[in-house]
Each structure stands twice: as C-alpha cells, then as structure tokens.
Amino acid sequence: MTLPSERGAAVGRRIGIGLMYGFWKPRVLGAWRVPASGPVILAVNHAHNIDGPMLMGTAPRPVHFLIKKEAFVGPLGPFLEGIGQVKVDRDSTDRHAIGNALGVLEQGGVLGIFPEGTRGDGDFASLRAGLAYFAVRSGAPIVPVAVLGTTGRDGREESARRGRLVKALPPLRSRVDVVFGDAFEAGDGSGRRTRKALDEATVRIQGKLTDHLENARRLTGR
C-alpha cells in the first residue's frame, strides 16, 4: 500500500499558505502547542468549507486530512491525492482509508480530522468514534483546533457579508482565528481497544474539544 505523500502534504501546505494569507487574514494562536515531530492528530471543528484549507495553510507542519470521497471528483481528485490527502468513504468501514491514516501516524506524520464527520455548527456536539480509534490505536496525542470567523456569525463579519465576492466564502481580507490547544492523550493509559474503551475515549475527547472551543471563543471574542 502506497501511503499518502509527505512531500505532497508539504506542497499542499505551501499552497494553503499562499491562498489563505492571500485572501484572508489568519490570526494563529498557540501553534507552538503542536509537537514539532512525531505523530499527532489535529481535531478540528468544521463549520465551513475553507476550514481544512485554512488549517493546512496555518498549521506548523504539513497535514494529511481525512476527506470524504465525494470531494475527489474530476481534476480535484488527483490534486487532493497529490498533496497527500486521504480519501474516505463515510458510508462504510473504509479499511483502505483506515490503513492510510494509521500509516501517516506510524511514519510520524500529522493527521487532520473533522471529528463531527460533516460540516455543521462546528461546536463538537456530535463526535464520531473514528477519532478515538485512531488516537487509541496509534497512541498519537490529539491537539484540538478551533477555526473561528469563517461563518460570519459575529456582528462585524455579518456587516461585511456584502463584501463577499463569492457568497459561500468569508469576506475577502477578513480575519479568521485559528486557535491550537494543548495536546492530550485520548486513552486511559491501559492500552485497551475494546468498544467500551473507545466509547470512554470518545466522551473524554468530546469534553476536551468542547472546553478548548469555549476557551478559544473567549480568547478571540468570537
């Protein structure tokens, strides 16, 4: 099995930097909390389509995201694969995607996950068990990430909606906050991988992610 390319992810990071800093004004807080080396999982809230690209352009290391297979259509498919992203079928147990994701972590890479599964309110209210599985199985620490300001919910951004060239995107040159939290271990230290252990890890993770999001909102005034 050919694993997602680390070199490709590095290219994707450079593209993300150019696009995100070219069109918006990212303010990155706490990037030093991401371990400089070794496997790590970035757990990101998901309220907007640019949340993934925004993180790719602001994270201190190249990121391999788990991305729904529906996004891999036309020329976008080879492009996403070329920049080291991982295609996943959300409607089945995608063993190929699981193997690729674990392979990224085994090689000391960074795996990006939207633990809510699909784009929604971005409040970590509903987590899928996949994040707990990858964290417990690999032993990789989780770093929570809050991307705030992409949905235009605060008063300043609502007033700027008329400045959007594309309705679905945040206003050009508007500020987007990316807040990294403290790394934590998902497991309880026992090494168990049972269904009960994964359920307990999911609850533990949800608490950590929710706390981080609340702290990030207080910190940024979002």
Q: What's the arrangement of secondary structure elements?
A:
Blueprint: H1 6-23, E1 25-29, E2 40-44, H2 51-58, E3 64-68, H3 76-82, E4 86-88, H4 95-106, E5 110-113, H5 130-138, E6 142-148, H6 155-159, E7 175-180, H7 195-220
Parallel strand pairs: 1-7, 2-5, 2-6, 3-4, 3-5
Antiparallel strand pairs: 6-7
Helix pairs in contact: 1-2, 5-7
Supply the key terms:
alpha/beta, seven-stranded mixed beta sheet, 7 helices, globular
Helix-strand category: alpha/beta
Roughly what is the average pLDDT, rounded to an integer? 88
Query: What share of residues is helical?
Result: 25-40%
Overall morphology: globular
Largest sheet: 7 strands, mixed
Instruction: Give, in spatial order, the strands making up the sheet with the most strands.
Output: 1-7-6-2-5-3-4
What is the total tally of β strands? Answer: 7
What is the terminal separation in angstroms?
Answer: 43 Å
Helix segment tally? 7
How much of the polypeptide forms β-strand, as a percent range? Answer: 15-25%
Taking Cα atoms only, what radius of gyration do you get, to the nearest Å? 17 Å
User: What ranges have pLDDT less than 50 throughout 5 or more consecutive residues?
Assistant: 154-165
